[in-house]
Recover the amino acids of this structure.
């Protein structure tokens, strides 16, 4: 069986010849997965959607070549090779950060890893993901479980927003990054009487 990497759309190229001079060969496909692909006049079989090992590890179809008089059909199986995919961070909806606040839960950090479909945490095939923080103001944040927390305190007059990159990295180093800018809401400061 032929094999192609997941993420590919071209999965097979038919090759045929005919000893009769001037013969035009035409290709067609039918069978189990034929509705998920097309074949062009040169014999290239293309999936309607990119191959995804986790949802379908192989494709089967019947390839037919026709010379106008005779048809020949062959069963084809194309195996999809699993390729590591990066985890995907879900959108982080940030909380409001008011001036002078400390220890503010900014948002829930969650992700999916396409490689973990059908696997459970602890399985050998399970792709562990680690979340780290980087960026201009990363030292003002920490992860508490799956919650991004601002350690503070926020001071609008010194800094009107804080920037942090939330990075989800799998065991192979594939990563996804969400860059956040969290604005600080200015709070009226009390006046100070400085005369004595």
């Amino acid at each position: 069986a032929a094999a192609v990497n997941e993420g590919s759309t071209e999965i097979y190229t038919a090759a045929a010849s005919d000893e009769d001079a001037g013969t035009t060969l035409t290709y067609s496909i039918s069978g189990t997965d034929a509705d998920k692909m097309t074949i062009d006049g040169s014999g290239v079989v293309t999936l309607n959607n990119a191959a995804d090992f986790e949802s379908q590890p192989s494709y089967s179809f019947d390839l037919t070549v026709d010379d106008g008089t005779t048809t020949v059909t062959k069963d084809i199986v194309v195996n999809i090779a699993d390729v590591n995919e990066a985890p995907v961070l879900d959108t982080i909806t940030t909380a409001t950060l008011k001036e002078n606040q400390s220890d503010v839960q900014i948002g829930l950090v969650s992700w999916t890893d396409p490689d973990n479909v059908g696997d459970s945490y602890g399985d050998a095939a399970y792709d562990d993901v680690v979340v780290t923080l980087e960026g201009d103001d990363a030292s003002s944040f920490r992860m508490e479980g799956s919650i991004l927390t601002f350690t503070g305190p926020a001071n609008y007059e010194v800094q009107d927003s804080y920037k942090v990159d939330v990075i989800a990295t799998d065991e192979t180093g594939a990563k996804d990054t969400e860059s956040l800018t969290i604005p600080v809401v200015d709070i009226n400061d009390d006046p100070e009487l400085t005369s004595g």
Remarks:
- The two ends are 91 Å apart (CA to CA).
- The chain has no helices and 16 strands.
- The first strand starts at residue 2 and ends at 5.
